[in-house]
């Protein structure tokens, strides 16, 4: 009774044999277990009796299919790995070019954008204050000048 129910469930979703028909890139962990189950069942049938030639042919076909799937997965991962390696090498070369262009004595300038400034940290005349700090200093200077003028006028009055 239990075995009949399992066979009905397998027929509803295509059974474990359906996993062998899928693309290797669409396989799930459950499909791998289904394939393992199918191959295991075929191995048991080999020792079971009179249907050995048919079971052997089925098993051979399924093993070839599993090997094809593995080959596709390995070649896909090798291709992806090779693409990543090429991209890494390209980025390394680009980084090296940028480093050599940015080294001291280089006449080329990097394009940084409209709101960016390159500051040479070894330049003794480089800016040391932000624009806001300079504005604050100038405003304070102007206030002190105004106070000085007021004090000078008061001093003139006392003379």
TrEMBL record:
Molecular function via GO: dynein light intermediate chain binding; protein dimerization activity; small GTPase binding
Entry superkingdom: Eukaryota
Domain spans labelled RH2: 126-159
PROSITE patterns: RH1, RH2
Gene3D superfamilies xref list: 1.20.58.1770, 6.10.230.10
Keyword terms: Cell projection, Cilium, Coiled coil, Cytoplasm, Cytoskeleton, Protein transport, Transport
Acidic residues bias (residue ranges): 1-14
RH1 domain residues: 15-101
Primary localization class, coarse: other
Spans annotated as Disordered: 1-23
GO BP, sorted A to Z: cilium assembly; protein transport
A cellular component annotation (GO) from this entry: centrosome
InterPro entries attached to this UniProt entry: DZIP_RILPL, RH1, RH2, RILP_dimer
A matching Pfam family: RILP
Compartmental location: Cell projection, Cilium; Cytoplasm, Cytoskeleton, Microtubule organizing center, Centrosome; Cytoplasm, Cytosol
Stated name of the protein: RILP-like protein 2
Organism: Podargus strigoides (Tawny frogmouth)
